[in-house]
Amino acid sequence: MFSSRRKAVTVAAAACLVLLAPFSASVSAEPTSAAQDPAIYTVPNTDSTSRTEINRTGAQVIGVRDGVATVEATPEQAQRLRAAGFVIGEGTGLGEALQRINRGQAAPGDFPPGYEGYHNYDETVAELDRIAGAHPDIAAKSSIGKSVEGRDIPVLKISDNVGQDEDEPEVLFNCNQHAREHLTTEMCLRIADRFTSGYASDPAVKEAVDGREIWVIPIVNPDGKSYDIESGDFQGWRKNRQDTTGTDLNRNWGYKWGCCGGSSDDPNAEDYRGTAAWSAPETAAMRDFIDSRVVGGAQQIKAAIDFHTYSELVLWPFGHTSDDVTEGMTQEEYDRFARVGGEMAQSNGYTPQQSSDLYVTDGDSLDWMWGQHKILAYTFEMYPASGGGLDGFYPPADVIEKETTRNDAAVDILLREAGA
Ligand code: 3K0
Ligand code: CA
Ligand code: CA
Ligand code: ZN
Known about the structure:
Blueprint: H1 4-20, E1 39-43, H2 48-56, E2 60-65, E3 68-73, H3 75-83, E4 92-93, H4 94-101, H5 121-134, E5 139-146, E6 152-158, E7 170-175, H6 183-197, H7 203-211, E8 213-217, H8 222-230, H9 281-292, E9 294-295, E10 298-299, E11 301-309, E12 313-316, H10 331-348, E13 351-354, H11 365-373, E14 376-382, H12 400-405, H13 408-417
């Protein structure tokens, strides 16, 4: 994808633009795809307002630490950033950034050397089958629907009497809405493993499994995940694989979809919201599954965590407004989000904040889960705290155990709170 031939074309195209721009404005309206290759920039001294502004140029904030934002932008988006007054320097080409990570070639479809501990789609499905097979009384696997390319989106239910729909608070953990956020799949697999293999020996696990119905969805975006690793080199892919550009699943949910400048209508933007709310089959499958948990008029899922990477944050709704209290959120409800969010953050060392404190988002999972269903819903941005670019999405496999067990206590807090 980032061959030297393409680089040569980029240089030539850029030279043409310089030469022709004064005479022919139409040249810049026909960018070659090479000219669209994104780069990574660092923007110091940002706050939630300026980060929202950055995203509005079509660029995407991919990490924040102490106000320093890491930003992904195409040349065109970078130009808009500069025009908006952001000082962004030269940037590092995405191909270059990925080459630093892609230290060794993997077999197609597999993670490369140093990343073998990660589970690809097939390995994740096999792991869920193994768990369900080893613990048939408390674990059952099914599918919530299919992706664009026809892959099942598997879900594991964990509870005592797992074959029955009992009257117990239900809790949802979902992972990997964003393709390149592979560490999150491992987080969901950690939850699946801990609450099954620990059942016989760990009284706290037994209490949670007996008293709750736990739903784990390790890969919301199976096509994007597979595409990201399929060539043997990471692609830095975020969206699903709908049409050629993909849709950002976490801007495609149906609560105040596209309302507030927190997503893009440009298919080339990383936060492209899609043609309509639920236009992505993956979000539609999530909606149908969560809607199906309304029993006798009451939503059974009481609490949820949507795992992402990176920046080490605990986020709560709303994302579409910077107001704490608004339509659909009372002060009391907000205070509960902040209290439980703060407690979870205390346990894992993340920073707790409202989702819009990162930047404004609309059509994300949090806003719909709370706005539509009053689910106590959080988004976790996992390790690392800062990544210096795309590297943050690709920590080597030797961090998996530490960075997933790091969230055990937070998961336990949420399971407790689901019964409150
Ligand atoms: O609710 C939120 O603020 C979501 C944050 C999430 C997103 O969808 O933009 N951050 S991520 O894309 O870097 N995982
Ligand atoms: Ca049960
Ligand atoms: Ca139930
Ligand atoms: Zn994400």
